[in-house]
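G.,

No rush on this.
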Amino acid sequence: MRFELPILLWVAPAAALVTLLLAWLVTARRIRLAAAWSAKLAPLARPGRVSSVVLLVLAAAAAGFGTAGPRGGRIQRSEGGQGLNVLIAVDVSRSMLAEDADPNRLHRAIREAQRLVQDLPSDRIGVVAFAGQSYLLSPLTLDHSAIRLYLESLDPDLASAGGTQLEPLFRVATQVLTGSREGGDRALVVFSDGEGHDSLSLSVNGARDLRREGIRLILAGQGGIEPQRIPIRDATGAVSDYKRDAEGNPVLTMRRDEVLQALALAADGVVVPADLPDQAGAIRDQLGALTRRPLRERRLADLAPLAWIAALVAALLLAVQTGSRRGASLASLLLAAALPLQAQEVPQGERLLRAGRAREAAEAYRRDAKAGKGGDTAWYNTGASLVRAEEFEASRDVLLRAIKSLDPGLRFRAFYNLGLATLQQSRRDTAGRAAREAEALGYFKQALLLDPGSGEAKWNLELLLRPEPPSSNSPRPNPQGQRPQQENTSALSPTQAEAILSSVEQSESATRQSVVRRQRLRSSASSKDW
């Protein structure tokens, strides 16, 4: 065990001694005042038990011990939320040092990647640096502060093998992203100038593997299309020479749009233009179209704070000391007698809904609304009950009143149920189907403006935008606008999934250690080192 402030350990015995002294003085004064009032009252004022003073002394000592900030052991922390699995890959080859971007291609890519990390607070993010080889610097994690540190440390010296090999990058990305069973959709974001030195056919095959695995590929081009020299700077930052090939001629590099477009086409991905002033914003918009799902991450932390244990012990001792006194016991009895338990009355509409009587529940809610009970919530409950009773025309008239509520959550549910009722009507009204579907489309869009993360609204909006739905021909019947339960489609048991994740983490850790040591690996794919 360690202490944040060891010098404050003296507070514990000092607090215990002061508490003992005060308890003795108070007891002596109480006895003296009782004796002055009546000689017969003095024996009753003497403490019947020494345990009360002992409890106070121990509580003071525990509180004083906690002020020193004890730490020890190991704690497991869990973080979760709704997010994606995003792997950021940055090209660290020598060609990224060309200065046709401000200040050069690499620094501009790092700046945009850092902005992207800030814009994705709830997503799991990993970092890969690649050149002649690919190096996994960080696995998928919610610790974005660590991700930013890895991005700041990116440098061409990090890669032991020069050149640019894209096929190994796609292979590593596939292993990392498919090894994660939690979270939403998976995406690979690549910052590169496209100066690939491996065979284009190999890179295209790797991109096709990404598409088969359901990984979204986003390529952010860097640099310009005009040939540029690669400066070599000395320790002071001044240009001492330019990168030269084996014959001694200056190397010229440019952005290879044909390579980026071929990879995007093979992976069914997208290329973010290099001349966009806000590449991070464009990438964020592309990721916004993907589906976020629940994810959870566990971390181990050494020397966990233990001051709360000391505070809890002190509070318990004080509670026991207070509860053992006669005055506290009498006060507890009076409080229990003055506060009888009352059963909470369930509204009539809710009772009828639980019984499956939706039409009668709608009438009950309507009576409450007309009587001024519940306000906009009563009108919404009326409309939602009518939707459940499949009285769609009547429900639309009521829900149109609920969408005027000042509560954004209530407005979202009202718009969602309006869209659901109108969509159901379009299935029955073949003559006016197009008009009904257009009206339902507007309601679902309004609902998504209020809650962009609603999976139900997105699903039904997709039914209207696509001629054929992905898996069902009917909208999801969810009148309350609540998020459905996620189905477990994995065939693995929790133990098997945990074992797979552990093996992936061990493999990633070994890869990071090899990067840190910067072992010199030879690249046989190409003789180019930029």
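When you get to it, here's the other one too:
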Amino acid sequence: MSQGLYISPTEFVSFSQQTEPLTRAGGGLSGEIATRLAAGDITSLFGLLPNPDPILKQMGKQIEVYRNLLVDPSVNGPRGRRTGAVQSMERGFDAELSKRTPARVLKACEDLIANYDVDNVVEDLIDGAFFGYRVGELMWDVRGGLPTPSRMITKPPEWFGFDPQETTLKFRPRSSTVGVAVPERKFVVVGKRRSWENPYGESDLASCFWPITFKRGGLKFWVTFTEKYGMPWAVGKLPRNSSTKDHDDLADKLARMVRDAVATIPDDASVELLTVATSANADMYKELLMYCRSDIAIALLGNNQSMEMQSNKASAAAAQHVEGFVRDSDARMIASGINQIVRFYCEVNFPGAQPPVYAFWEQESVDDVQASRDEKLSKSGANLTRKYYMKAYKLSEEDLGPDKVPQTNGQAIGDRGNLLGVDSTSFADATSTVVPPDQAALDAAIDQLPADAIQAAMKTLLTPALKAIEEASTPDEVRQALVDAWPDMDASALEDIMTKAYFVADLVGRDSVKDAQQ
């Protein structure tokens, strides 16, 4: 039986036929079989793929309906919070991911991005997560003799759509009934969870639409309820045979009384103030509003800790961790937009060159945690190499600079200066040119100590501690690991060497005092 694949209900292609040119239209391994047209999923509007957003489909609206949601405080607050979180991150071209980029190309790209206000770029592109996608138009001119995308102007997302077949960007001009293809390298498109199936992305505001709608409706009813029951009712009483004119006149006087607290009524009429106890009913409106605000916070921040009265330190820490993932997702989306600008620039001016990669990262965690640990390890005798620093902190050879050989009175420090991995500190006073005889004798005696033995003793002592630190992941775990490793830390060899060193120093000191007395 021949093995192959049905590419249509009536056409069968065997695997043996793949020796034919793969570029044969509609066939072979290079042809596209699963298309929207073949699947019957080609519902298009003016030659554009409709936005599959469930809220927009249900309402028969376009994405501009979400713009009105941005003015709601429950949305505008998290929006500014997410923007500020990305703006506070470190940013630049990633040294590891850009190592294949030629130096001149990297320098040109750095100059290109230096002309952009990256904080403004973050504010412009952050709405890609809120609307699902965001489009920026690049304005090109010539700078330094090179075509350069000098600035980017973000445009309303409702002005654009996507081709049903190629899912490429199209413009919706008012003067045309169909989408118009846009030039290459002219527009930057970013978004959240964009794919071939849904190039419009997934809008965060879609999850907020109904909570905001119900919140606004609940607030309106709550205000009406407050106006109706917030103040006592003034009830006027007239004799049964009073005319309609008398009732209307008393009603007008009561209305003025509510407003001005002054009224006059006939001597045969009476006024009573009624207070309705409705606090339980008012709480229902409040609970509805708080529920809606909580759902909006979950949709935009991943948690509702700012809405919860029962939050504690542990839940707040977990919420901050979740918000870190949201921030990182926004940062990757914005970095993808900047990388599109860089790629367009390189394709035009440096064809074939590998463009550098722009990224955002959190510098604080590296500086405070890892650097503190490395500093302690260095002081404990660990020999952290240049290769380690380059890998751990994403540094280059130029960042570390050349190695320095410390000098003491014109002589390089020997094994004694490197017992604890120190390679850049002089043990002699830099301003001193004459070494006292007793100090020279002590230095000569210490030089006779076996450096290899000292290094081996330090290694034996610190190996359990270093192993425990490497296996720990948090400061608390490091602290507990050191406590657990303490019984296994063998200091006997180091104690023996230090006893000998103290003995030699004591002899030198006694001899120096004896000479001074004589």
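Confidence is low (pLDDT under 50) at residues 18-26, 404-433. The CA atoms of residues 104 and 319 lie 43 Å apart.

Enjoy the weekend,
O.
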